[in-house]
């Protein structure tokens, strides 16, 4: 099978531009020269036509013998060169319409005339061009009628017109060649100068691919095409750098998460393994020691089970954030959470109160139904995690209050970033109606460094209460992930000596307003 021939195309943009400019300039020169030749040829031909129109041929001379009516005496004969001016030639047809062999005028050559008038085919008084009888020349002829009704053909050679046209043609070709060469050189320099920003951009791109990722394009003038291309290139570079940074951060978080998860699982797993080996190696262990070993194995197994469940929940929230949505009454969930916290820790003071409003960003109403759209089990887990966190990490005499209400996102009501406020998710648009659940404690609060880490996985703050065992450090990370999956936000307002406020913000209602937080 034969391959189709390859089309020869210049691959360089610079070569293409130079070739296009050269071709266009050459065509423009040749077209203008052709137009000039056409005008000059027409003007010279018009001059000849005017001469033919103004010329009146003389009568048939007497020395042309053998035609009846003419005198046979040759005394009156006048030389032809004296009868006609310049290079005129006059040809006669007799009364029978036959071309006479003799003619008036001097010079060499003659037009190719037919032998009879019937074959002449020319209009009286209208000039026409006929080829020469011999050679490549042409003649301009006009047909007239003498007083006796015989046809007379007056002719002028077009040697002058053809000579001038030929010289102009060669001159035009020379000018075209010189113009093509000049335009080629000048356009090459101009294109090279015009494409210099692209060349700099190319060199910058090559250096970036070689590893200098911090470089940017310097040609960013928005008034030029290359400048706008440079702006777009820099924007693309910023997006690529941001994506690479996010990728590196994600990989680092993943590696840290895997290391932390392995570390968290290693401790209870080592305990389970050690006590199990103790029971196997010492079958006659006293009953009290045996029971203690069994209890420790069960406790560490439960700890590992909770940790695995939390890890599974985090992974599940990553690819299927909210699998079930329904109308949720946050006030009922908060009341259930408070009731469970009081039962689990009867010595703690845990209260339920309305959300305190101050100005247009909040409300100060009595407790009422506060509804949102989401998964009730996940939202209940968020409230339970916040309450457990407040009870574990504050002194026993510190009060805990759960506030429920509605507000508009802002600096005071929440949803927006400000000094002293931390969150793992981005800020919400201002002025958006949201449902708010606040868990407020009057404990010692957190230092800024600790506040920035509370939503990180496996982070454990200082515990002020005597719990049965330390937590996994995933509770607040899970709560923040659930809030983000519900198109909301979990944030913390705290400072040392003024307690902590964990604030859960969710889209208000189940109608179109809830979509504004997305």
Task: Give the helix/strand layout.
Elements: H1 13-54, H2 80-83, E1 89-93, E2 99-104, E3 128-131, E4 138-145, E5 151-157, H3 159-194, H4 196-209, H5 225-281, H6 287-319, E6 326-329, H7 330-344, E7 350-354, E8 371-374, H8 376-392, E9 400-408, E10 421-423, E11 433-441, H9 448-451, H10 475-485, E12 489-494, E13 500-507
Parallel strand pairs: 7-9
Antiparallel strand pairs: 1-2, 1-5, 3-4, 4-5, 6-8, 9-11, 10-12, 11-13, 12-13
Helix pairs in contact: 1-3, 5-6, 6-10, 7-8, 8-10
Give a summary of the structure in a few sentences.
The protein is of the alpha+beta class.
Question: Could you characterize the architecture of this molecule?
Answer:
By secondary structure, the protein is α+β, with helices and mostly antiparallel strands. Among the domains are: 13-163, no CATH class; 322-517, Heat Shock Protein 90, CATH 3.30.565.10. The protein is 45% helix and 15% strand. The strands form three sheets. A six-stranded mixed beta sheet has the order 7-9-11-13-12-10. Strands 2-1-5-4-3 form a five-stranded antiparallel beta sheet. A two-stranded antiparallel sheet has the order 6-8. Strand 3 and strand 4 form a beta hairpin. The chain is rod-shaped and about 160 Å long. Mean pLDDT is 77; it is low at 62-82, 358-366, 464-468 and 511-518.
């Amino acid at each position: 099978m034969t391959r189709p021939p390859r089309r020869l195309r210049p691959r360089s943009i610079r070569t293409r531009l130079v070739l296009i400019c050269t071709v266009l300039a050459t065509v423009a020169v040749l077209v203008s020269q052709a137009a000039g030749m056409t005008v000059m040829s027409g003007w010279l031909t018009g001059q000849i036509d005017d001469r033919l129109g103004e010329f009146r041929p003389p009568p048939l001379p007497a020395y042309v013998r053998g035609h009846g009516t003419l005198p046979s005496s040759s005394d009156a004969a006048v030389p032809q060169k004296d009868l006609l001016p310049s290079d005129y030639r006059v040809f006669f047809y007799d009364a029978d319409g036959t071309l006479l062999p003799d003619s008036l005028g001097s010079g060499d050559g003659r037009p190719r005339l037919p032998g009879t008038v019937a074959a002449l085919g020319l209009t009286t008084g209208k000039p026409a061009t006929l080829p020469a009888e011999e050679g490549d020349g042409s003649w301009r002829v006009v047909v007239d009628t003498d007083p006796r009704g015989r046809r007379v053909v007056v002719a002028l050679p077009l040697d002058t017109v053809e000579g001038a046209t030929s010289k102009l043609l060669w001159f035009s070709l020379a000018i075209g060649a010189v113009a093509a060469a000049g335009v080629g050189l000048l356009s090459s320099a101009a294109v090279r100068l015009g494409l210099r920003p692209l060349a700099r951009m190319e060199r910058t791109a090559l250096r970036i691919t070689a590893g200098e990722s911090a470089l940017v394009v310097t040609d960013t003038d928005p008034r030029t095409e290359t400048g706008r291309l440079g702006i777009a290139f820099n924007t693309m570079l910023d997006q690529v750098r941001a994506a690479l940074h996010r990728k590196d951060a994600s990989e680092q978080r993943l590696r840290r998460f895997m290391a932390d998860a392995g570390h968290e699982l290693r401790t209870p797993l080592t305990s389970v393994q050690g006590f199990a080996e103790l029971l196997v190696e010492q079958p006659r262990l006293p009953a009290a020691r045996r029971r203690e070993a069994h209890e420790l194995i069960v406790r560490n197994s439960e700890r590992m089970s909770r940790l695995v469940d939390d890890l599974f929940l985090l992974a599940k929230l990553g690819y299927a954030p909210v699998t079930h949505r329904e109308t949720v009454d946050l006030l009922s969930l908060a009341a259930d959470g408070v009731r469970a916290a009081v039962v689990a820790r009867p010595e703690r003071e845990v209260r339920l109160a309305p959300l305190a409003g101050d100005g247009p960003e909040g409300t100060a109403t009595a407790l009422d139904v506060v509804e949102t759209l989401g998964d009730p089990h996940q939202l209940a887990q968020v409230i339970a995690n916040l309450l457990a966190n407040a009870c574990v990490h504050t002194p026993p005499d510190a009060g805990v209050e759960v506030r429920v209400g509605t507000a508009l996102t802002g600096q005071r009501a929440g949803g927006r970033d400000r000094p002293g406020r931390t969150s793992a998710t981005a800020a919400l648009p201002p002025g958006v109606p949201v449902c708010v659940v606040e868990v407020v404690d009057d404990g010692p609060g957190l230092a800024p460094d600790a506040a920035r880490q509370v939503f990180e996985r496996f982070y454990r703050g200082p515990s002020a209460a005597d719990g049965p065992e330390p937590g996994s450090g995933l509770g607040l990370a899970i709560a923040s992930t659930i809030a983000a999956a519900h198109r909301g936000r979990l944030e913390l307002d705290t400072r040392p000596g003024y307690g902590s406020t964990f604030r859960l913000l969710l889209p208000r209602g189940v109608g179109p307003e809830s979509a504004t937080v997305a």
